[in-house]
Design brief:
This protein is an all-alpha fold. Helices cover 78% and strands 3% of the residues. Helix 1 crosses helix 3 and helix 7 runs antiparallel to helix 8.
C-alpha cells in the first residue's frame, strides 16, 4: 500500500515540450498557491488528493504497475553493483567471468528459441544467475586472498585479537561489556583460523570454480541435445560456501548488498509456498 501511495503521489505524465511532469505534485503546488488568497482551495486540494490517492492505491492494475516499477529500480541498482564488482576482476579472472557469462547467455537464448515453459524458464534463469554470482564471488575472494592486502588484513586481525585479549584481562569490566567483547573475540579467532588456512581456502575456491564451469557446460550440452531446459535444479555444493566477509576485502559490503537482494525473491517464494 505505501509503495502504491508513493508511486501515485509522484506519478509523472509525459507533456509535449516539458517532458515527464509530476502532475500530482504540480497540481498540489498550484492549489497551495491559490489557497494563500482563498483558503477554500486548500480544502479542495485535500479532498481531491485524498480521492486521487485512494483511487489509485486501491486499483489492482496500478498496484501491480507500482510494484513492477519498484522492482525495476531495485534490479537496476543491484545490476549496477554486480557490474562494478566485475570491473574489479583482473586479467585471466575477468576473461573467465566473461566466458561463463557468454555461455549462460547462449543457454538462455537456446531456451527462448525453443519456446520453453515460462515457469521452468524463470526458475532455471534464476539458477543460472546464482551460478554466475557464486562464480564472481569466488573469483573476487581468490583475487583478494592472493593480494598483498590479504596479508595486511591477517596482520590487522591478529593485532585486534591481541588488543581485545588484553582488554578482557581488565577485572573492572562490567558483565555486559565483557560479554560483548567475548563475543567479538570469538569472531576474531574464527577469522584468524580462516586466514591461517589461506592455501587450503584457495584450493577449495579453485575446485569450486571448476565445478561451476563444469555444471554450466553440462547444462549447455543437455540444452543443445534436448533443445529445452533440463528439468533439474542447477545448483552445486561448494566447499568454500563458508567464506566470510573477511575474504572479500573492500568489496564485502557491496557483496552483502547483492546477496541480500538475490535472497529476497527466494524468501518470498518460500513464503508463498508455505
Amino acid at each position: 500500500m505505501l509503495q502504491a501511495l508513493k508511486a501515485a503521489f509522484f506519478l509523472r505524465w509525459p507533456v509535449r515540450g516539458l517532458g515527464s511532469v509530476p502532475v500530482n505534485v504540480l497540481g498540489l503546488t498550484c492549489l497551495g498557491i491559490l489557497g494563500v488568497a482563498n483558503p477554500g482551495f486548500w480544502l479542495l486540494g485535500v479532498g481531491l488528493e485524498t480521492a486521487y490517492l485512494a483511487t489509485l492505491a486501491t486499483n489492482p492494475r496500478f498496484v501491480r504497475w507500482a510494484e513492477a516499477q519498484s522492482r525495476a529500480v531495485a534490479d537496476g541498482s543491484v545490476e549496477a553493483k554486480r557490474q562494478a564488482l566485475e570491473q574489479q576482476l583482473e586479467g585471466d579472472d575477468r576473461r573467465a567471468m566473461n566466458r561463463l557469462t557468454a555461455e549462460c547467455a547462449r543457454i538462455v537464448a537456446l531456451w527462448k528459441s525453443a519456446e520453453s515453459d515460462e515457469f521452468l524458464m524463470d526458475a532455471n534463469e534464476s539458477a543460472l544467475r546464482d551460478l554466475q554470482w557464486n562464480y564472481l564471488k569466488l573469483l573476487l575472494a581468490r583475487q583478494h586472498l592472493r593480494s598483498p592486502d590479504a596479508e595486511a588484513d591477517a596482520g590487522k586481525v591478529r593485532e585486534n585479537l591481541a588488543a581485545l585479549e588484553r582488554e578482557l584481562a581488565d577485572p573492572s569490566l562490567t558483565p555486559a561489556t565483557r560479554e560483548s567483547k567475548t563475543a567479538t573475540l570469538a569472531i576474531l579467532k574464527r577469522r584468524v583460523d580462516n586466514l591461517g588456512r589461506r592455501q587450503q581456502t584457495l584450493a577449495e575456491i579453485d575446485s569450486d570454480l571448476e565445478r561451476i564451469e563444469a555444471q554450466v557446460q553440462l547444462v549447455l550440452e543437455n540444452t543443445m541435445l534436448d533443445r529445452k531446459p533440463p528439468a533439474v535444479a542447477m545448483t552445486v555444493d561448494l566447499a568454500s560456501q563458508t567464506l566470510d566477509a573477511g575474504f572479500f576485502g573492500s568489496s564485502a559490503d557491496t557483496i552483502a548488498d547483492v546477496d541480500a537482494a538475490y535472497a529476497r525473491p527466494a524468501a518470498a517464494a518460500q513464503k508463498e509456498q508455505a
